[in-house]
Amino acid sequence: MPANLTPQYHAAEEAYRRAVTIEEKIDALQEMLAVIPKHKGTERLQGDIKRRISKLREEGQRKSRSGGYNPFHVEKQGAGQVVLVGYPNTGKSSLVAALTRAKVKIADYPFTTAVPTAGMMPYEDIFIQMVDTPPLTPEGMPPGLLNTLRGGDLLLLLLDAGSSDCLEQLEEMISLLRGKRIIQAQPNAAGSEQEVDDPHRIYLPYLVLATKTDQPESAENIQIIRELMPHLPLHTISTKAEETLDLLKKEIFNTLQIIRIYTKAPGKPPDMETPFVLKKGDTVLDLAFNIHRDFPNRLKNARVWGSSRFEGQTAARDYILADKDVVELNV
Ligand SMILES: Nc1nc2c(ncn2[C@@H]2O[C@H](COP(=O)(O)OP(=O)(O)OP(=O)(O)O)[C@@H](O)[C@H]2O)c(=O)[nH]1
Ligand SMILES: [Mg+2]
User: Fold this and answer.
1) Atom of ligand 1 nearest to the CA of 108
2) Which of 42, 73, 110, 263 has its CA 20 to 30 A from that of 48?
């Protein structure tokens, strides 16, 4: 008998495939079970889903009994999580050391880093989390790293611009990450539609960093990459040149698509110390949600300084905020 699976079922199945943690997997499987058409044709599939749920539950219980420590799970902190990825010796740990206070090991031999290590990078008045990772190889990636990458908000693909096989490494790395459906295909040409690998998938944004540009061979390699892949989001850095790191920080902030909002109480000066960090496109209502779950119910109106036409303009709940706006929420 044909199973006649519905779009809701396929959506839940897709969520299952995307799920990273045990909890997310169980949630998605339960949803699949809830929406699966209940007839003889799906009995085996229903049994299979139930078995998978109970196996995951056992796994979860085992993990929590043993403390559940997973070094490849990096708890998110700060305004965004940026995960570095690349072949051995490309300078991942050096970059994290240059941008944060994380204690990472740097060495001129490969496979120095064994597990992810996170540090916080100050950017103006916020902190962005930078995650150093163990290296990729042409054969693939260490078990667990896939989950670290999927958890990030932005990937930095590092490439040793001074090495003779850097173009090969770049192509292999992109094809490996595309194969794992973490990043999407390159745009074909300026302004053209992006090739869609899978419309249901959430791909991570990424920047390609050509590192060690203080090395003489790097200029030629970078020129070749620029000619061959003109649409690659390519940036060049050297941990020995502070100005390249400053530009990188700005680029990371822009690519994360976040905005900082400062709040003020009526009749009081704004708190310019600790901004709320929201996503580009977020509204007054999103800000209210961020402050307190039931704030939106009590919200009467808001006043905005910064992006509004005039200072202190009254703004509706759906007013789209901009970076560095000051907002007064009135209840
Ligand atoms: N000249 C130069 N050397 C660099 C730069 N960045 C890193 N290096 C050197 O490159 C070597 C490898 O650096 P790491 O930061 O350990 O590289 P990694 O990518 O973390 O290496 P794995 O942990 O093995 O994957 C070290 O000898 C660094 O000193 C740079 O910008 N310029
Ligand atoms: Mg390292």
Assistant:
1) 27
2) 73
What is the rounded distance in angstroms from the CA atom of residue 162 to the CA atom of residue 123? 28
Neighbours of ion ligand 2 (CB under 5 A): 92-93, 112-113
CA distances from 99 to 7, 35, 108, 141, 218 (A): 45, 47, 19, 25, 22
- pTM of this prediction? 0.79
pLDDT band of 28, cuts 50, 70, 90: confident
Residue nearest ligand 1's atom 2 by CA: 212
Domain ranges (residues) in the chain: 7-65, 81-256, 258-330
**CATH assignment, 81-256:** 3.40.50.300
Nearest by Cα to 146 from 207, 74, 72, 198: 72
Q: Please give the Cα distance from 227 to 224 (Å, whole number).
A: 5
Mutate to test the pocket of ligand 1, among 89, 92, 132, 157 (most ligand atoms within 8 A of CB): 89
Q: Is residue 239 within 6 Å of ligand 1 at its C-beta?
A: yes
Going by C-alpha positions, the residue among 15, 18, 25 that lies closest to residue 180 is 18
Give the CATH superfamily of 258-330: Beta-grasp domain (3.10.20.30)
Q: How far apart are CA 210 and CA 136, in angstroms?
A: 16
State the amino acid at position 159 in one-letter form.
L
Ligand 1 pocket residue status of 238, Cβ below 6 Å: yes
Residue range 172-211, pLDDT digits in tens? 999 999 988 899 866 444 444 455 666 666 789 999 999 9
**Angstrom distance (rounded) from CA 65 to CA 316:** 49
